[in-house]
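Researcher: I'm comparing several assemblies side by side, and this is the next one on my list. It has 349 residues spread over two chains. Same procedure as the others: predict the full complex and return the structure.
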Amino acid sequence: MALADFFKKKQSSSVAKDRLKFVLASDRAGCSPEVMEKIKNDIIAVISKYIEIDMDGLDINISQNPDSEIGSDGPVLFANIPIKDMRSKK
Amino acid sequence: MGEVIVVTSGKGGVGKTTSTANIGTGLAKLGMKVVLIDTDIGLRNLDVVMGLENRIVYNLVDVIEGNCKINQAFIKVKGYENFYLLPSAQTRDKTSVTPEQMKELTDRLKESFDFVLIDCPAGIEQGFKNAIAGATRALVVTTPEVSAVRDADRIIGLLEANEIRKTQLIVNRLRVDMVKRGDMLSCDDVLEILSIGLIGVVPDDENIIISTNNGEPLVGDNSMAGKAYMNICHRILGEEVPYLDLNKKEGFFSKLFKK
């Protein structure tokens, strides 16, 4: 049991690595959490004008570009905005 | 014409001064003409780490202000032909020196030394600007901790902005046992996050504290840190040196858990 717990628990070094990647991405982009919040609200406002979005599943973040397919390997603004399914609503 | 190298980190307490003392001493051991400059005005420490604190007469600010000749402020390190320390002032502050004055000084010194090694204060304010003013190369010291790595990233950006292109990383105080357990960022993790070249990994070694107690840099001795610092010196001179097997010291346990 103890061994299983050991493997389940996320190692603190990988927690550190993930946290660092996020904080450095916003540091490098010169984008503070407050600015991020404003960007997020503006994006929501724009998209909500046209379609209804699912606020619970919303995820907007700056991170290091995970794959070079998208272009530069600098920071990227990543937005995952789920749209409400109109059909199931009715 | 020599090279002006700044040793910097952003965060305090990661081993800038210890690294400056050891790398400077190592380069001197390898026959280089070296001068160390402590630019941490008001909080000088390179003198004590080098064991030269009782020999200070004049300091960096005296030289800048013209109160003495540069040679009068130099403290010669015993046992070496061409190895000196230019100590910082303890009773002044960072604004006593400007980046222009520092650049002028280092430009002059690199004509007669192979290496001008600058110990940079923590932070990114005036002291940092002074320290990097004349540098053409930088060694960024970090430890495998989130705060130190974050600050190192900031410093790397500032060095780039100041057109110091030759910037390399020293990962200091690495604990192999903790890395293996998954409780410390590995050297590769840090390099991946900072995307910068490595010049050395220094293991966490209690011999560093002992050597600082004695005021004698341990570079070149048989300790792990002593070997790691000597390897850094060789790499600074352009030699290719394989990285130390940091597992060695663990002996029995490392054998037991070796993959």
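Model: For your comparison table: The mean pLDDT of chain A is 79.
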